[in-house]
Automatic annotation (TrEMBL):
GO terms for molecular function: tRNA binding. It comes from Candidatus Neomicrothrix parvicella RN1. The keyword RNA-binding applies. Residues 21-124 form the TRNA-binding domain. SUPFAM superfamilies: Nucleic acid-binding proteins. This is Molecular chaperone. The keyword RNA-binding applies. InterPro entries: NA-bd_OB-fold, tRNA-bd_dom, Tyrosine-tRNA_ligase_regulator. Keywords: RNA-binding, tRNA-binding. Signal peptide: none annotated. Transmembrane segments: none annotated. Pfam families: tRNA_bind.
């Protein structure tokens, strides 16, 4: 007889925030311009350079999305939060947060706009 399979725990709902707090989060459409390996990171990750268009420009981030091949990321539209400040990750300056859905196995499925939304467009 085999042991019972563990059922993945569902994430709990977070505490409510005001509409004003939510509106202060600057989410934008970007397009991945460059992908590099990041062997210095504790967990497998890519270094991404993403163009958020005129007025914002190219920002870089570290992303634990190695379930995507580098060539599958190049040219891909993504959604990023660009006003959370910067963080140092293994000596690398991470300037935004790329958004994705976290699966039960810990992998991340990237969020992207439907269609060909222009680079730099805000997310509502």
């Amino acid at each position: 007889m085999s042991p019972p399979t563990a059922v993945p725990r569902q994430p709990q709902r977070k505490h409510p925030v005001s509409a004003e707090v939510f509106a202060s989060i600057d989410m934008r459409v970007g397009v991945v311009q460059d992908v590099e390996a990041f062997p210095e990171a504790r967990k497998p990750a890519w270094k991404l350079r993403v163009d958020f268009g005129p007025g914002i420009g190219v920002l870089q981030t570290s992303a634990q999305i190695t379930n995507y091949a580098a060539d599958a990321l190049l040219g891909r539209r993504v959604v990023g939060v660009i006003n959370l400040g910067t963080r140092r990750i293994a000596g690398f300056r991470s300037e935004f947060l790329v958004l994705g859905a976290v699966e039960a196995d810990g992998s991340v499925l990237l969020l992207a706009p439907d269609g060909e939304s222009a680079v730099g467009r805000p997310i509502a």
